[in-house]
Amino acid sequence: MRPNHAFRHASFALDLMTRLAPAPGALAAQLLHGLRTPQGEPLGRIGTLEIRMAETAKQVRRAQRLRYRVFYDEMSAAPDMRARLSRRDVDGFDPVCDHLLVLDHEPVMLGTKRNPRVVGTYRLLRQETAARHGGFYTAGEFAIGEMLARHPGSRFLELGRSCVLAPYRNKRTVELLWHGVWSYVLRHNVDAMFGCASLEGTDPARLTQVLSYLHHFHAAPPAWSARALPGRRAAMDLLPREKVDAKAAWRALPPLIKGYLRVGAFVGDGAVVDRQFGTTDVLIVLPVSSISDRYIQHFGPGAERHAA
User: Residue 234: beta bridge partners?
Assistant: First the structure.
C-alpha cells in the first residue's frame, strides 16, 4: 500500500500562514463546537472561487484528475499502469474520505458557460471513519497508533493529497483552501490534525541541515510524538544542535512546512524516503489547541471570514 502524503507537493505560496505569529492559543480550545454548515452548501467564496465538499463520485474523479496533473505530470511521482491509463491519482482510501474542492466559476470567455473548474483539492479522513475502514493512510509511514492511544478522548483528522493547479498557486486560492479545512475542523469537532509533509529528494544526506533543524527545534513533545516505521526510518539528527544553521535551514524549508510550524505544529521522530514520489517525508502533528490565536482570528472563530 502506498503511504500517505498529506500536504503533498503543496509548494505553492502559503503567504498567509507564513506571516502569522506562533502565539499558541487559548482561543482554539473554545471553538470546537462552533460551525454547522449544512451539507450541499459552499463553505466559502473569494471572487470567482468557491470551496465546498465533493458530493458525487464524478466530483471525486475530477479531484483525482487534478492530483494526477500535479503529482505525475508536473512533479516527480511515477505512475503505475492503472494511473497512467486513467490519468487519475486513485487509491483505496478515496471512497471513504471527504474531499475538499476549490472551484473556479470564471467563464472561459465572456458570455460563455461551463462547469466550474476544479483547481484545488484536499483529502480528509476522520478518525471514526478510519477505524471502520482499515485505519489511517499515514500508518504506512509512521507508527501513529501510540500517539492516538495517548489521547483516547480526542478526535483526529488526517490531511492528505493536497494540490493546487499551477496558475492558481496564489494567496487567494490557498487562503480559501485553508478556510475549508478550518470549517471542516469546526464542523466535526476535530482536536488534532496530522499528515506527512514532503521535502524534495530521496537522499537524506542532501537534506542534512533541514532535517537536523526540524529534529532539534521542532520535535513533537512526547504526548504528540510518533516514530517512523522500523525499516523505513531515516535519522533526522544528522548534525548536533550547535552545528545547525537555523536561518539557512528555515529558508530551505518548503513554504507549507514553514506555515505549519508557525501556527503551532510539531514534527515526528524520523523521516521516511518515498522513492515513488521522489521525496523525503516528515510527520506533521497539529493539535487544535496549539494553533495561533492570530490564525484563528484571521479566518474567524466560526470560519465566517469567507463564508458563502
Answer: 271
**Residue 20 in this model has a pLDDT that exceeds 60:** no
**Quick one: average pLDDT of 253-261?**
85
Cα–Cα dist 71/241, whole Å? 34
Residue 57 has phi, psi (to 5 degrees) of -65, -35
In a domain, 1, yes or no: no
Name which of 289, 238, 6 is nearest 142 in CA terms: 6
The reply to whether 271 falls in a domain is yes
6 within some domain: no
Residue 110: count of CB within 10 angstroms of its CB? 5
Q: List, in sequence order, every residue forming a beta bridge with 84; answer none if it has no partner.
A: none
pTM: 0.84
Residues 6+ apart with CB under 8 A from 158: 4, 6, 124, 125, 126, 130, 136, 137, 138, 193, 194, 195
CB 120 within 8 A of CB 173: yes
Mean pLDDT score of the chain, rounded to an integer? 85
pLDDT tens digits for range 87-119? 999 999 999 999 999 999 987 655 555 678 999
Q: Are strands 227-228 and 233-234 parallel, antiparallel or unpaired?
A: unpaired
Tell me which residue range forms the domain holding 174. Answer: 15-299
What is the β-pairing status of strands 156-164 and 192-200? parallel
| Number of domains composing the chain | 1
Torsion of the alpha carbons at 158, 129, 97 and 35, rounded to the nearest 10: -70
Distance CA 140, CA 130 (A): 13
pLDDT confidence band for 280 (50 / 70 / 90): very high
Judged on CB neighbours under 10 Å (0-12, 13-18, 19+), 113 is exposed
CATH number of domain containing 229: 3.40.630.30
Average pLDDT over residues 271-276: 93
Q: What is the pLDDT of residue 111?
A: 57
In a domain, 252, yes or no: yes
